[in-house]
Every structure is written in C-alpha cells, then in structure tokens.
Amino acid sequence: MPIAVAGAGYVGLTTAACLCELGHQVTLLEIDVERVARLKRGESPIFEPGLDALLQRHLGRALKVTTDLSEALDGAEMLIACVGTPPTASGAPNLSALWRLLGDLRRQRRSGELTVVVKSTVPPGTNRRAQQRLGAGFAVVSNPEFLREGTAIHDFFHPDRIVVGAAQPAAARQVAALYRGIDAPVVVTGWEEAELIKYASNAFLAVKLSFTNEVAAVADSLGADGLTVLRGVGLDRRIGPHFLAPGPGYGGSCLPKDLAALRWTARRRRVRLDLLPAAERANRRQRQRMLAKLGPVAGKRIAVWGLAFKAGTDDVRESPALEIIPALLAQGARVVAHDPEARRTFAAALTGAGVQREGSASASTGVPPSGAGLPGGFTLVDEMWEAARGADALLVLTEWPEYAAAPPEAIRTALAGDLVVDARNLFDPEAMAAAGLRYRGVGRDRGFHPPA
Ligand code: UDX
Q1: Whole-angstrom distance, CA of residue 226 vs CA of residue 429
Q2: Where are the alpha helices (DSSP H) in 158-225?
Q3: Which pLDDT belongs to residue 412?
Q4: Per-residue pLDDT tens digits for 45-59
C-alpha cells in the first residue's frame, strides 16, 4: 500500500522502515532540510539498533524521503502522523506540530478519501478534534505506538497488541491491514479508548516501577535480597516478571511525559488521581536515594558510567543522570562521566543547548567538540576506564553491557577509593566484595536506610 509517514523522529523512522519491510511503499515527510539531506545520504539521524541496516535496504527503493507534502501524498492512500508531541509545563503535550500538519493536509488534499493515522501520542479527545478540523474526505484513525527505544524494530514486528481507534469500520480495517503478517491481537475500538490505552499503559508501567523501587528500598533497609523478593513477587502470574528491575528511577521520553499528560487529562475532567502523583514523587525520591548511597561527596572525584536513560539509546530525556550529576556538582564533587552513545546528547542537554533528540542532527557518537559550556567540575571522557581511574567512587547509572562486563578486580585497580554504587544491579555483590570493593546495589544494599 502506498503510504506517507510524517515526521522522521524515532517513531516515524522506525515505522517507515518497518512498513517497507512489510512490503509497503513509503514516502517519509520531514520538514527539517538537514535531516532529509542526511537521510538521503543513507545516514540515520538517530541511534537505534538495526535501523541503519533497514534504511540502507529500503532508501531510494520502497522508501523515499521528501520535504514536500504534495509529493508525499502523491498516490498515497494513507498518511501516518508521527510528529513530536513534547511536554509543556502544565503536563499537556504540545500539539502544534500535529495541528500544523493537519492544516497543511486540509489545504493540500484534492480528491478521494485519505486515511489519517495518528500515531503521535495525544490526549483523549485529540483524534475527535482532528476529524472535526479535517472534515469530509478524511478518515482519522488512532493507532498508538508502544515501541521501546533501543528495541523499537523488534517491538514493531513483535507487538503485544495493535490498537486501532476509529469511527468508521472501513478505515479501522484498512489500518489493521497495514500490519498483515504480524502475529498480535488487534484491539479495534473508538478514538478515546485507543488514546487512553496508550496513556494508561505507560502510566501503569511508571507506577509499577515506582512500586518496584520502593520494595527495593524496604529490602535494603532489612538487609534482605530485594531481587529475590521481586522475583518471588513476579512469579505471580497476575503481577508478571517484567518491569520489576529496581533502578535509579524511570526516565525517557514517554513514561514521565505520558504520566503527566494523563494527570492533566484527569484534572481537566475534574477526576482526582492519587496514585499517579505518588508514583512521580517516588521516582524523584529514587534519584535522591542513589545520591544518598554515595554518602558525602564534597571534594571527591566521582566516576559516572552511563548517561542515557537506559541502555541501547543515545536519548537522555528525563535521564536520572541529568538530575544526579548536577546534584553531585552542587555538593562539591568533581564528576568524570562516560557513556558509549549519549555523550553528545548529554552535553547538549546539560549546557542547555536545547538539542532535542527528535530534532537533533548530531552524530550518534563522539564527545562534544569542546568542553565549552559544561559546568565546572564536570568532565566527559571517551573511554570508561578513563572515567574510573583515580576516582573515589564509581556510580553506574545505565545498564550498558560493557559496564556489566567490567571485571571487579579491574574496577578495584582503577579506582582510588573502594565504593561502587550500582544503580542497575549489574554486578555480583560477592564478587565485588571479594575484589575489595564496598558494593551498594538497589535492593542489594544491606542495611541501607533511605533518607526520610
Ligand atoms: C516506554 C514504553 O515501554 C513503550 O511501550 C512506550 O511506547 C514508550 O515508552 P521507553 O521509554 O523506550 O519505552 O523505555 P522502557 O524500556 O519502557 O523503559 C522506561 C524506563 O524504565 C527506563 O528509564 C528504564 O531504565 C526503566 N526501567 C524499565 C527500569 O528501571 N526497570 C525495569 O524493569 C524496566
């Protein structure tokens, strides 16, 4: 099926490339000229495992890229909107890119019916408004995405479900047919239901993680093994084993944003929610707990391994490192940090360069061209051992495999001090102790009492 995909961010690029893989003809519409030029050269503007290979396979064949809407719509039966909906201070997402796109569509479209699929994450009621704005000749369908960064391509082909929210059954069938060949239940429903499934799913995950982190904190205080506790909990089929790994608090572009947007939606409808604000508070406290595990840091040199909000991505949006590193610096520590992919995005975020990953044209690896603008006492290095060497303590914030593979003896030799705070539970506590290290995991920190 000939399809236009609007927005070459991480959702749009992944969707476009994977739809080509399913045999569709896709034209990717992107307004950023520089981004389009890079794509045409075969370079992916974002780091997402497997994406480069798919782009190279389809670019210039099943996949075309353009800045021109009429070219994108030429012959297309469907347009999939994957434009960004970044958060605002109120919690409401900023929908201006979506409204701009729909306005352009309305002006552009001549004859025949166009199905407009809203994949961007939007508050309940948005698809209905989109249909009202577009009017006759357009069928709006909500089709939220559930892609995790770092495994987006796998998630596209192996989804737990496909959600299609529509007012017209024919349009719903057309969108469901896009995914023919993928083995997953299809939930066909109305607009608001589809929109709310997306928000409720991410809010649930956030609540589950805050709960997990609180159980880990109690286990720490008891000297109990929190990971065994959570494994025992997760074996209950009603609870399930996923999203039970304690850590430094959830981050990323979706969980915090969608939880805030669901709170905003409820506020507008005068529905009081108690659980979601508590999950947000618990997440902030979890980051404080990681700091407390380091003890007093004034005058010390702290090595940080990991800046991305999770492994497999260069995304630092809402990353724990963005909160924890400035707090360490404010307490008088010197920080030497490393990340295999996210050094440039982190430097941009820290210096307030405002580089949003979705709009960033930066290379996916490599340190910033200079330390200019970085806060005093903070250094970014290219190599993980360079960060560890001579440090008083090591703080592990992202679960990159190369960190997990670091031999405890080598960590002991590199550090000047002996403290390792492992916010991702990458290491075996006994092996760390045997190497002469003081090891503090999350839910594996015998006798640690969280701050009041
Ligand atoms: C999430 C949703 O999973 C996805 O369905 C949605 O569409 C977009 O948002 P993503 O933000 O890429 O995906 O990351 P995810 O893998 O879900 O992790 C979210 C956060 O939770 C990360 O900070 C991660 O480190 C943390 N996490 C996850 C844990 O701390 N423990 C876990 O067990 C799982």
Answers
A1: 13
A2: 169-178, 191-222
A3: 98
A4: 888 999 999 999 999
Q: How many CB atoms lie within 10 A of CB 106?
A: 13
CA angle, 108 then 114 then 117, to 5°: 105
CA 151-152-158 angle, 5° bins? 90
For the CA of 150, the closest atom of ligand 1 is 12
H or E element in which residue 20 lies: helix 10-21
Candidate from 154, 205, 324 with most ligand 1 atoms within 8 A of CB, to mutate: 205
Helix residue spans in 223-319 (DSSP H): 226-234, 255-268, 275-294
pLDDT tens-digit map of 369-426: 456 689 999 999 999 999 999 999 999 999 999 999 999 999 999 999 999 999 999 9
Query: By alpha-carbon position, which residue is closest to atom 25 of ligand 1?
Result: 310
Residues found in the chain: 452
* pTM > 0.90: yes or no: yes
CA of 159 to the centre of ligand 1 (A): 15
Residue 364 has pLDDT above 60, yes or no: no
* Ligand 1 center to 250 CA (angstroms): 7
Are 226 and 443 spatial neighbours (Cβ–Cβ below 8 Å)? Answer: yes
Going by alpha carbons, the residue nearest to atom 34 of ligand 1 is 243
Tell me which residues are annotated as active site.
254
Q: What residues does ligand 1 touch, defined as CB less than 6 Å away? A: 145-149, 202, 205, 209, 243-245, 247, 250-252, 254-255, 309-310
Atom 14 (ligand 1) nearest CA: 148
What is the spatial distance between Cα 440 and Cα 426, in angstroms, rounded to a whole number?
A: 11
- Residue 150 corresponds to which tokens in the numbers above? 């770092």
Task: Give 94-124 pLDDT, tens digit per residue.
Answer: 999 999 999 999 998 777 899 999 999 999 9
Cα of 69 to ligand 1 centre, how many Å?
33
Q: pLDDT digits over 189-243, tens only?
A: 999 999 999 999 999 999 999 999 999 999 999 999 999 999 999 999 999 999 9
Q: How far apart are CA 25 and CA 425, in angstroms?
A: 44
Closest residue to atom 6 of ligand 1, CA basis: 146
